[in-house]
From TrEMBL:
Residues 54-93, 173-212 form the RING-type domain. Residues 495-691 form the B30.2/SPRY domain. This is Uncharacterized protein. Keywords: Coiled coil, Immunity, Innate immunity, Metal-binding, Zinc, Zinc-finger. The keyword tRNA-binding does not apply. GO terms for cellular component: cytoplasm. Residues 351-443 form a coiled coil. InterPro entries: B30.2/SPRY (IPR001870), B30.2/SPRY_sf (IPR043136), Butyrophylin_SPRY (IPR003879), ConA-like_dom_sf (IPR013320), E3_ubiq-ligase_TRIM/RNF (IPR051051), PRY (IPR006574), SPRY_dom (IPR003877), TRIM8/14/16/25/29/45/65_CC (IPR058030).
Length: 691
């Protein structure tokens, strides 16, 4: 609910603009009964229940203005309201606005107001008594408005210099809402900080930020206002702090009316004093020897509970503070200052000793942590090495299994072939015997004895055939091959298992080499970086000279590094590529035409293709099953061992190893980024540093 005056305010000052100009009126007439000035509104609206008033001062409008939300107030009232509340907010609808708000003057009123003004019966009297009413358009009354007193808050005009708290409200700039800094006053009477007004005039027209009057000339520094602010700041700086009761504050025990914060506490007087009441301890000779300390909240704990005297002595026998009357014969008693110095020295030694013990234990903790990290790293390396060994063992077992099964399969095939041959031969003789039996039966049925005797001699030898009595299928199985395969398998497994007992602290990273790519070997479609660390498929053929050592068909490239002995290790960032080849190649391996990448042709490499397929390019090639897609692949070569191993660097997992080869001649790093594949495989292969 709005107050009555605000409700009336909404009626006569709607949010939409009206059509008639709004004349300004300066109140001149004084009532004979009350002595209070009456405005022209009271005359024009004498027959109505309420007058249009400002809802802040509850008086007739003085220099009315409209703010962005549509509500209207006196210019001085709304400015003072904002200064006091520290925010640009409408008192009615509580809408907030930016601090640098532009004023919008109310030049129009509603039709009802205009009707009352034009039809008022006293309007002719107003024309005949201009000295009382002085009705004039707003544009012709600018000088009177500038000379009129500020009626925004009449109560503030009665504030004298003895009330600096109220005066302080008048010393705030209406732009920055802070105390004036080098205040200047415009010719319209408003004051601002010199810098605030300068910024406002730079961003807007040369008008007053409050009344929007055009400014003439340069605003002058208000010396009186500046002096007032300086005096106010000095008074605030020199003003003693009052006791607020906050945690850690101690009140002066001498102050009566207004408690101030204590500056020191006296251990002999057992009282706390502010700066004013502490002066006696510095001026009076009898008090100069008192011990002053920082303000103490509980001074009762500094007094003897038995005698009420200060605890200024320390009994080493009793181990407590005592007063002069508590001293007992035979007890060693010293002053509290002496014992304090002694205990403080002991405390310093204890603190130093404790600090040294802390440092010692921290060093031990760091030593344990470093040992744990080294041990963990060593265990991880050994775990990978063991995985690699057992990978070879499992591969050997699988190969041996196949070798052991191969003779059985061959023997089975031979037995099946032999049985088939014998069966076919027996079936053939069976058919022949059946034919002979048929012929004999026909002869036996002959009634012509002459013909029978003539035919019988020719049939007497037909029943002769192969003697199958000693013929049988050889089902014996030879175990010689199985035994030899088992022996070879066990020998190889033992060789691999021997590596477990000879694992050294030096790991693969120790053998890192700085690999760079050789542009003379790169296919003409490949693009190499200037530092020779990256290679990608450029998607088009480049104009490069043909060389004997250049790959002319395969999109491959070799490294500069020649491997002829020892161990070498490098890492390649493969990222999210959908295809690549990585490995090593023999220096004399063929690089022309369609290549068959395998160890027989001098290539030891693994391949990634079709986005998610991995394989080892062996004889024959076979698929690899990886738990996750590698982002960085490490390549390790042991020239003497004939070993090429591949690792997933981030997963720290072994991918595959070529073993049991005898390397001769020069070996070089081998890389192939594969084709672009519609830009799905456009990322380069990057040889990374090993830190």
């Amino acid at each position: 609910m709005l107050p009555n005056n605000a409700h009336f305010f909404r009626i006569f000052f709607p949010l939409y603009p009206c059509t008639k100009p709004f004349p300004d009126f300066t109140p001149k007439k004084t009532s004979s009964s009350t002595g209070k000035k009456k405005s022209i509104y009271s005359v024009l609206f004498s027959g109505m229940s309420a007058l249009p008033q400002c809802c802040i001062c509850l008086d007739d409008f003085t220099n009315p203005v409209s703010i962005p939300c549509g509500h209207r107030f006196c210019l001085g009232c709304i400015g003072e309201y904002w200064r006091l509340h520290g925010a640009c907010q409408c008192p009615l609808c509580m809408t907030c606005f930016p601090i640098s708000i532009k004023w919008v003057h109310s030049y129009r009123v509603c039709a009802t107001f205009t009707h009352f003004y034009t039809t008022s019966p006293i309007r002719p009297q107003l024309k005949t008594k201009p000295t009382l009413h002085n009705v004039a358009p707003r544009e012709e009354n600018q000088a009177a408005l500038r000379a009129a007193p500020d009626m925004a808050s009449p109560s503030l005009h009665s504030v004298n210099m003895d009330t600096p708290i109220l005066i302080k409200h008048h010393l705030y700039c209406s732009i920055c809402l802070d105390l004036f800094e080098n205040p200047v006053t415009t010719h319209c009477g408003h004051s601002f900080c010199q810098s605030c007004l300068g910024r406002n005039l730079h961003l807007n027209d040369l008008t007053c930020p409050l009344c929007k009057k055009h400014l003439r000339g340069n605003p002058q520094v208000n010396i009186i206002l500046r002096s007032l602010i300086q005096e106010l700041k000095k008074a605030q700086e020199s003003k003693p702090e009052e006791y607020s009761g906050a945690l850690g504050e101690v009140a002066c025990d001498v102050c009566t009316e207004r408690k101030l914060k204590a500056h020191k506490s006296c251990l002999l007087c057992l009282a706390s004093y502010c700066e004013t009441h502490l002066q006696t301890h510095t001026s009076a000779e009898r008090l100069k020897g008192h011990r002053l300390v920082a303000p103490v909240d509980d001074l009762d704990g500094r007094a003897c509970l038995t005698h009420g005297r200060p605890l200024e002595l320390y009994s080493r026998a009793e181990g407590r503070c005592v007063c002069a009357l508590c001293m007992e014969e035979g007890h060693e008693v010293v002053s509290t200052e002496t014992e304090w110095d002694k205990k403080k020295g002991e405390l310093g030694s204890s603190l130093a000793e404790m600090q040294e013990r802390i440092l010692e234990r921290e060093r031990k903790v760091e030593e344990i942590r470093e040992s744990m990290d080294l041990c963990k790293a060593q265990l991880d390396r050994e775990r990978r090495e063991i995985d690699s060994v057992f990978e070879v063992v499992m591969t050997t077992v699988e190969e041996t299994r196949r070798e052991a099964l191969r003779p059985l399969e061959k023997r089975q095939q031979d037995m099946e072939r032999e049985a088939e041959e014998l069966t076919q031969e027996l079936q053939k003789e069976i058919r022949q015997l059946r034919d002979i039996i048929g012929q004999l039966e026909d002869v036996a049925n002959l009634e012509d004895h002459i013909h029978f005797l003539q035919t019988f001699p020719s049939l007497s030898g037909l029943g002769d055939g192969r003697d199958w009595t000693e013929v049988s299928l050889d089902t014996e199985v030879s175990f010689g091959t199985m035994r030899s395969s088992r022996s070879a398998m066990m020998e190889k497994i033992e060789q691999e298992l021997e590596k477990l007992s000879s694992i050294e602290l030096e790991r693969i990273l120790k053998f890192a080499v700085d690999v760079t790519l050789d542009p003379d070997t790169a296919n003409i479609q490949l693009v190499l970086s200037e530092d020779g660390k990256e290679v990608r498929d450029g998607g088009k053929i480049q104009d490069l000279p043909d060389r004997p050592d250049r790959f002319d068909h395969f999109g491959s490239v070799l490294g500069h590094n020649m491997l002829t002995s020892g161990r070498s290790y490098w890492e390649v960032d493969v990222g999210n590529k959908t295809g690549w080849d990585l490995g090593i190649a023999r220096g004399d391996a063929n690089r022309k035409g369609q290549l068959s990448v395998n160890p027989t042709n001098g290539y030891w490499a693994i391949v990634h293709y079709n986005g998610d397929q991995y394989g080892a390019l062996g004889d024959p090639p076979f698929l690899l099953s990886l738990m996750e897609k590698p982002q960085k692949v490490g390549v390790f070569v042991d020239y003497e061992e004939g070993l090429v191993s591949f690792y997933d660097v981030e997963a720290k997992a072994h991918i595959y190893s070529f073993t049991g080869y005898s390397f001769t001649g020069e070996m070089y790093p081998y890389l192939s980024p594969h084709l672009l594949n519609g830009k799905k495989n456009s990322d380069p292969l990057v040889i990374t540093e090993i830190g």
